Amino acid sequence: MLELEGIFAGYKDLTVLRDISLRVGAGELVALVGPNGAGKTTTLKVISGLVRPTAGEVRLDGRPLTKEPPHRIVQMGISQVLEGGRVFTGLTVLENLELGAFGAAARKAKHENLKRVFTLFPRLEERKHQRAGTLSGGERQMLAIGRALMTTPRLLMLDEPSFGLAPILVEQIFRMIAEINKQGVTVLLVEQNVRAALELTQRAYVIENGRIVGEGSGDSLLSFESVRSAYLG
Amino acid sequence: MLAPTIQSLVFGILIGGLFGLAAVGLSLVFGVTKFLNVSHGELLMLGGYTSFWLFTLYRVDPFVGLPLAILALVVLGVVLYKLIFTRMVKLSDETKIKNTMLVGFGLGLVLQNVALRLWTADDRGITTSYSSHVIQAFGVRFPVVRLISFAIAVVVLLALQLFLKRTYTGKAIRATVQDWEAATLLGIDIHKVYLLSFVMGAGLAGLAGGLVAVGYSIKPDMGLEWTLISLIVMVLGGLGSFVGTFVAGLVVGIAQSLTSLWLGGAYREMVALLLFLLVLVLRPQGLFGVKEG
After folding, report:
1. Helix, strand or coil for residue B89?
2. CATH of domain A1-77+155-161+184-233
């Protein structure tokens, strides 16, 4: 469904990604793991169009995305949740969710999607008239994921959803991600919490210094020597 | 002693409403796009001359002509955005502020000289049959045209507030102010949001100009003073709160008016700058602003 081929990208004079190629099949739950500064977030931003690659191509169902503006890419079915969730703190929970349904197609599916989000995260329904700024860290992450689901994505990209959350919340968020995936949404997950990510996913890529250095099933990577020594201790 | 003070207070509030209206336009544009459009005062000036022209050439009542003054500035806003400001969208926030200031100053000079050509350097105003009507109450005079202008400013700001709170587009604007990246990732075309905000800012300047032309007077070099006042009011009120901006407009209007009365007209501008400095030192987020985070 999603293919990256020979992607080079960076910011101003700094090249972050050097020849990244990866693919995510429809219905898969794929993780991208690696240390800080390896290029995980940049990879997601290249896919969502926030960062333009200097070389290489991103394709969705064979169609090149590299020239599309970010808001069009969202409407084509790719939704990214930024690190930390980045909810609109000055707006209410419901307003945050409604903004997820901004595109024409998503607007038609608004009520259906809202019901789905509230079923997944009943907490959000309880707090729908509260300002998002009053939510806890875990609730903000739920809201960010819910808001992304409002765009009716086929591919959901999550950037460090466990960041800064207590272990019990991490477990809960990861269960939700698995549930969303089961409902038919393809997931690309970026995580520093490597063990949890690898236990969750069918397949993972290991990225270091802007290059893919490993690929395999979650289990096989868990026993992969360099991964073990580097991330699992 | 008391009567002139109260009279001054009333005049201060009436002009302060227009300060607030002008500043809300500037603040809307700045909040969304991070463009500091220092030619905002010149746009206001052109709004004033549009009303003036409509009145002197076609006998259009200055209040009836307001939608046309707004429309003229909306059109100009689109042209300026597409021609100039769209090139600065991709810059970092800091560079954006600097570059838009430079461009704004240049643009302001151009517009000022165009106005000089078209309308000469004379002070102009719109004198209607009811311009001298005054309502007397409690020993205080309320000039009717200024009262109407103030009411229009209040109504328009309330409508704007409602638009931002209730409509889908308004919510998209508020979301873009908070976090343009997150907004983009929800499928919001922020270029459209930028254009819309810029154009709304120009329209608000046009309206404010039309109101200044009927209750006060206009001249080609009035722009810088209005930009400065708008800037002071915007910072005083705090970003992100249009009610705050409007109240700050009243505060500056009252302060200027009372200073003129007590110390003389020469000190009017100084007191606004003094308020500006005080706020920057004591309460940088503005009187009604919310702290970051």
Report:
1. coil
2. 3.40.50.300
